[in-house]
Specification:
The structure is a single chain. The chain is an alpha+beta fold and 321 residues long. It has a single domain, classed as L-amino peptidase D-ALA esterase/amidase, CATH 3.60.70. The chain has 6 helices and 17 strands. The strands form 4 sheets. Strands 1, 2, 3, 4, 5, 8, 11, 12, 15 and 17 form a 10-stranded mixed sheet that branches. Helix 5 crosses helix 6.
Length: 321
């Protein structure tokens, strides 16, 4: 059996830069995924409580083919304001879609709900979106409680006070000669399991501190329903040539990586959204790209927990190395 060839993270995909900005007191932040030369964009929104910007533009049949950045934001719907900062940063550098009267940067975005930790009155804004772009590099990407991962939590079936601290993670795998990477901010209602072993890594903590299984709690009617305090969002990047239709297919297939690690996923309480950016280069089979994207998402989710630290009175997952 061929062992996947792993790289370090999404910035191993040529043409991709990543920057974080965060408020460590309010526990919220922004992650900017930049593709300054433009990248064919797709999206898949599978959760039922999404907060998004420019997702219609990403779908086949619409005029614009490329995006210049994707923003992943905390702050619930308020956090979409951060995209204006990214647009300003890109416009100042002449990056965007040329039109008759201005160069218009194309910046899709998605938000997660982190208002239940830190301060609900402080949300990502235009200044934070600009700062995340200013910090972006093509070097190693910080993981854990940074950027959009700053206020992330998982396993909330028994309320926020029984949840586990999470964060943002990245991973990258080779599909032939093409790098396929992912960055994911993990803020799920459900549990996180290691798909290799089935071991529960993060579940709601019972009265004795032991982690419980959310699906079992749901089936016996013992789970609560924290309103909207969730949503896992991310970007997969493909260092190869894809059509817009293919980029949308890869974004859908990438959700398999969430389904292999988060239980349950795509609930009525989550707005799970993944974007795909194809930066150009060698042709790549769509099925291979989608399978690689799901693998990268799977590992990115585990890395988000692996690098998270206790914050906001919540413990981080234990036993991850």
């Amino acid at each position: 059996m061929t062992i996947p060839v792993w790289l370090s993270g999404i910035t191993d995909v040529p043409g991709i830069r990543v920057g974080h900005a965060q408020d460590l007191e309010a526990l919220t932040g922004v992650t900017a995924v930049l593709a300054p030369a433009g990248a064919v964009v797709g999206v898949a929104v599978e959760g039922s409580a999404p907060g998004t910007r420019e997702t219609d533009l990403c779908r086949p049949g619409n005029l614009v083919q490329q995006a210049h950045a994707v923003l992943l934001c905390g702050g619930s719907a308020f956090g979409l304001a951060a995209a204006h900062g990214a647009m300003r940063w890109l416009e100042e550098r002449g990056i965007g879609l040329p039109t008759g009267h201005a160069t218009v940067p194309i910046v899709p975005a998605a938000v997660l709900y982190d208002l239940g930790v830190g301060s609900a009155q402080v949300r990502p804004d235009e200044a934070m979106g600009y700062a995340a772009c200013e910090a972006a590099t093509d070097g190693p990407v910080a993981q854990g409680c940074v950027g959009a991962g700053t206020g992330c939590t998982v396993a909330k079936a028994l309320g926020m006070e029984r949840a586990i601290k999470s964060g943002i993670g990245t991973a990258c795998v080779k599909a032939g000669e093409v790098a396929v990477g992912a960055i994911v901010a993990v803020n799920a209602f459900g549990d996180v399991r290691d798909p290799a072993t089935g071991r529960l890594l993060a579940g709601p903590r019972g009265a004795d501190g032991a982690m419980l299984d959310t699906t079992k709690l749901l089936l016996r009617g013992a789970a609560g329903r924290p309103f909207g305090e969730n949503t896992t969002i991310g970007v997969v990047a493909v260092g190869g040539a894809l059509s817009k239709e293919a980029a949308n297919k890869v974004a859908r297939m990438a959700h398999d990586g969430l389904a292999r690690t988060i239980f349950p996923i795509h609930t009525m309480l989550d707005g799970d959204t993944l974007f795909c950016l194809a930066t150009g280069g060698p042709e790549i089979d769509v099925t291979a790209a989608g399978a690689a994207a799901a693998l990268a998402v799977e590992r990115a989710v585990l890395n988000a927990l692996r690098h998270a630290a206790p914050m906001g009175g919540l413990p981080a997952a234990e036993g991850l190395s």
